[in-house]
Design a protein that fits this description.
Blueprint lengths: L11 H18 L13 E6 L5 H12 L3 E5 L12 H9 L5 E6 L4 H6 L5 E7 L5 H15 L6 E5 L6 H12 L3 E5 L15 E3 L2 H4 L5 E4 L15 H8 L3 H4 L7 E3 L12 H4 L7 H23 L7
Parallel strand pairs: 1-2, 1-3, 3-4, 5-6, 5-8, 6-7, 8-9
Bound molecules: phosphoric acid mono(formamide)ester.
Phosphoric acid mono(formamide)ester (CP) binds next to helix 2.
Pathway: Pyrimidine metabolism; UMP biosynthesis via de novo pathway; (S)-dihydroorotate from bicarbonate: step 2/3
Pfam family, one: OTCace
Family: Belongs to the aspartate/ornithine carbamoyltransferase superfamily. ATCase family.
Amino acid sequence: HRHLLGIQGLTPPEIVDLLDCANTYVEQSRGPAKKGDLMVGRTVVNLFFENSTRTRTSFELAAKRLGADVINMETATSSLNKGETLIDTAVTLNAMHLDALVVRHPDSGAVQLLSEKVNCSVINGGDGSHEHPTQALLDALTIRRRKGHLDGLTVAICGDVAHSRVARSNIHLLTTMGAEVRVIAPKTLLPSGIEAMGVKAFTDMRAGLADVDIVMMLRLQTERMGGSYIPSIREFFRFFGLDREKLALARPDALIMHPGPMNRGVEIDSVVADDVERSVIREQVEMGVAVRMAVLDRLTRERGSPDARN
Ligand code: CP
């Protein structure tokens, strides 16, 4: 593949290859930054039209640890504010002989559209409520390192499933790899027809969490709710927030996951988020750098010599 636009369409061997490659980068991803040379002379541009802490920083770290030059485009101060379109911006950047463009955009499908207009590799850093492929890969790596495998596990994805690209990418990856996926949300936050993605849908946390191996919590993505109903925080926490009592229904060795950013006291109680034995939220962030190194590694090797580019 020339781009990484989503998990949908990746085969099990392709997913395993990315996870195996990421696993080999875990030590190097931790630093102290002993730089690799795979991407020396290559340029990676981060183009983020939405806020990010984890994704943007870890792509920058990953690319630098492979020896690349990295540029972070500030969309707030770019010529996008003078009316230049997304496509013209990408074509302009492409003319500077980039190797990879990491893009986050509020519209589902915008990253794919952009990938059709440029010669460089395009990596989806999250597009609307569509996909966030590197998040699903880092979640899978975290689970695999803790549990040893993905197949046969039962994973509950809980909260605002309707607006979540993280949920969609995780559903594609986990079902492709043989895990059973449940989604648990109030009816208003469950997309209609979600069962067609091969998941079981629940509107009751207590029923959905019974005997699961993994509990993955999602933030209420109010920025994508537009005019639709936004639940009351207190009510949402009472019925759908993960606390000790609800967690007790999962398997005793169930892992607690959250892609971040977390809203403590909304979808997750601090006591659970900070559980030193079962919460792997910080490990997810750590795996993010190794996974992004693996994605850059595979796309760089696919591209071949820098002289062949553009
Ligand atoms: N999980 C995630 O994508 O975090 P950021 O929005 O901080 O990048």
